[in-house]
Amino acid sequence: MKPHRNIAIIPCRGGSKRIPGKNVKALGGKPLIAYAIEAAVQTSIFEAVIVSTDSAEIADIARAYGANVPFLRGEDLADDITPVSAATIDALERVDPTRTIYRNVAQLMANCPLRNAGDILESFQQFVASGAGSQISVTEYGWLNPWWALTCDERNILHPVFQEKMGARSQDLPRLLCPTGAIWWAKTSTLVAHGTFYAPNYTGWCMPWERAVDIDTEEDWEMAEMLLGMQGK
Q: Do 15 and 127 lie in a common domain?
């Protein structure tokens, strides 16, 4: 048994309204879900890689790529409004009801296919070193500076969200980070106790934006395909 007793849980429901069949759709020649499974398996730090899904088709594909699918989750955890963390906690309680087998859990979203095994390992090293109860992956916003965000009313008049920051130089503004679902860690006790990865004093692990892409729309998919192609060069 590995010293830290880690489990990876990949929530992956069958329904997807914006990209039908997203999690089984081929990206770069293999199903989207395959990327999360392969990255987790390649790290060799997990005693189990579990896919939580309501879809028999996804379950079959997940097993073919090396994941365990010991159950199909209920419909109440496969809708559009249930937090993903609820599915992760459900899976954790099914496979470790006494919470004595696994010390840490990594939630790896299937719609973040560009994260790799090295990212998972580096994020885990920071998580352990920090002593935090939970940690989420984040990335920088890039060239679009969120401090200069504007709203637009019905007359097309613009209103700064952060009025006091509008005159500041970009290099003088605080660094802002955006959550990405690529790699979220928690101590199992922390996740179950708080019901969320946003537990008190949660920390962030910053990853490159080009591997932090969350695929939610067709435009996201096209960008992921482009970035995946660039990685192969």
A: yes
Owner of token pair 């994260």: 115
* 12 shares its domain with 117: yes
Task: Return the number of other C-beta atoms located less than 10 Å from residue 200's C-beta.
Answer: 9
Q: Which pLDDT belongs to residue 233?
A: 47
Instruction: Tell me the pLDDT tens digit for each residue of 163-176.
Output: 999 999 988 999 99
* pTM for this entry: 0.93
CATH code for the domain of 41:
3.90.550.10
- What are the angstrom distances between the C-alpha of 221 and each of 80, 112, 226? 20, 10, 9
Identify the sign of the CA torsion 16, 19, 20, 22.
negative
Same domain, 130 and 113: yes
| Average pLDDT of the segment spanning 78-85 | 81
Query: How many domains would you assign to the chain?
Result: 2
Instruction: Give 177's strand partners.
Output: 140
